[in-house]
Every structure is written in structure tokens, then in C-alpha cells.
From TrEMBL:
Signal peptide: none annotated. Keywords: DNA-binding, Transcription, Transcription regulation. Residues 1-29 are annotated as: Disordered. GO terms for biological process: negative regulation of DNA-templated transcription. This is TetR/AcrR family transcriptional regulator. It comes from Actinomadura barringtoniae.
Length: 260
């Protein structure tokens, strides 16, 4: 008997039955895929929407299958943060430009945090230990060291810079979370600050002469300008230790550390 193609005598589906659609091939789970999916949820819906269950739903699987690659939500957040900060642009330390370079790295970090909504909340109260976070800290330390900043001051400055970035980014994300559908950040800020401006102006001038007299300055919409001002204050403070240290490893408050 001659061989026949298996599909030649395939029985057709009865017309009263719906043919089941072929399910798309499921992408194999991996830690990278889980983290990428969690970041997409973060960017679209915010940090509160990120959970093991929510990420599993996006991947069309159960939460239990994620635990083979990520131990818990805390580790997931750490991995997300480290993946995101990989976007921060670093610089080659230059002793002639070190103060401006500190600002350049911080500006890049601010742009990255702003692009990922409230990811800054995941770094508050933690010491980032991922490879990408460490490369940023290493770069910041190297920049300050070529500028003559003592080791102890540079170590404290890295922490201070991180706290400033996180606080600024968290506040910005809080404003964004309050936006109504179709409302722009500028529209919201103008309405909110407009109310604050009127309130400050209505305060009794005999009790609050400086607030009343500086209403316009206190309620100015200067997001980028405000960030730059704070950054300039911090960098000037760091530089003051480098200038007074004269190459030594003096610590804040007049102390000193031994050895370079």
C-alpha cells in the first residue's frame, strides 16, 4: 500500500464546532524577562502596581513560576532599580572639571529617574549593591578624588547626592500621581501653586513679613532651576573640603583619616 500524507485524510472540523485558535508559543521565563516586564508595569502604572502576581499576569503564567528566577518582590525591586540606573551616563574623571562632572552625572540620573516614574521610591532607605549602581558610585568617587576631595568627605558626599536625587525624584513622582486624565504637569502645578500663592499672600504680614514679602519667589515654578540650585549648593560644599584639605584626608568637622 502506497504511503499517504498524514494531512491528506485529515478530518475537517464540524461546522457547529469552533476551531480552537493555536496558542502562541510561550516565551521561556528568565530573570531578565521578568525584570523587563516589571519595568514596563512600573512605567505604565507606577510602583504600587508592581507585584509578583501582576508581573506573572503580564507573562501569562502563575506567580509561583517567577520564584525560580526571583526570590521575592524585594529582590525584584532591587533588580529593576539596577537595570534602570544602567541608563545613567558616566564620565571620564577630569581634575579640571570635576565639579561640573559631578553635576553632569546627577543630571543624567535625574533624567533616568524621571523617565521611570516613581522608581526612586525603590531606592529610598536602601544601599544599592547592584553592579550598575556600584559603577555610578565608583564613578562619583573617582571624580571627587581627582578633584582632591578627601576619602571620608567623598564617601559622605555620595550618600548625600543620592538622597538629594531620590527626594527630588520622589516629590516629582508624587505630583505626577495627582494628575487628572488629560491634565498636564504644568497645568496641575499652576493650579496647586496658585492656591499656595494666594494663601501665603493672605497671611498676617506682622507675623510672617518675609513669607508675605517673598511670595513670588517662594512659589515660583522652577523645577529644573530648583534642582540645579540644590545641586550647586551640595557641590560647592564638597569643594570647600577639597580646597581646605590641601591634599590631606581631613574629615568633616576638622578630623582626619590616616593613610591614602
Amino acid at each position: 500500500m502506497p504511503a499517504t500524507d498524514a494531512n491528506e485524510h485529515e478530518i475537517p472540523t464540524p461546522p457547529w464546532r469552533k476551531k480552537r485558535p493555536t496558542a502562541p508559543a510561550r516565551q521561556p521565563l528568565s530573570q531578565d524577562l521578568i525584570v523587563e516586564t516589571a519595568i514596563r508595569v512600573l512605567d505604565a502604572e507606577g510602583l504600587d502596581a508592581v507585584s509578583m502576581r501582576r508581573v506573572a499576569q503580564e507573562l501569562n503564567t502563575g506567580p509561583a513560576s517567577l520564584y525560580a528566577h526571583v526570590s521575592n518582590k524585594e529582590e525584584l525591586l532591587d533588580l529593576m532599580l539596577d537595570q534602570i540606573v544602567a541608563e545613567v551616563e558616566l564620565v571620564e574623571p577630569d581634575p579640571e572639571r570635576w565639579q561640573e562632572q559631578v553635576k553632569e552625572v546627577m543630571r543624567s540620573a535625574q533624567r533616568v529617574y524621571a523617565a521611570h516614574r516613581d522608581i526612586a521610591r525603590a531606592s529610598l532607605g536602601t544601599v544599592p549593591t547592584g553592579p550598575n549602581a556600584l559603577r555610578i558610585a565608583e564613578n562619583q568617587l573617582a571624580i571627587m578624588r581627582v578633584g582632591g576631595v578627601p576619602k571620608r568627605v567623598a564617601a559622605l558626599a555620595v550618600d548625600t547626592l543620592g538622597l538629594y536625587l531620590e527626594a527630588n525624584s520622589v516629590e516629582d513622582s508624587m505630583y505626577l500621581s495627582k494628575l487628572k486624565d488629560g491634565e498636564s504637569p504644568h497645568e496641575y502645578f499652576e493650579q496647586y501653586i496658585g492656591q499656595i500663592r494666594k494663601y501665603f499672600a493672605s497671611l498676617p504680614v506682622e507675623r510672617f513679613p518675609n513669607i508675605v514679602g517673598m511670595v513670588d519667589y517662594l512659589t515660583d515654578d522652577g523645577g529644573d532651576e530648583r534642582f540645579e540650585f540644590g545641586l550647586d549648593i551640595i557641590v560647592r560644599g564638597i569643594a570647600s573640603f577639597a580646597e581646605s584639605a590641601a591634599g590631606s584626608d581631613s574629615a568633616p568637622g576638622g578630623g582626619s583619616s590616616t593613610g591614602d
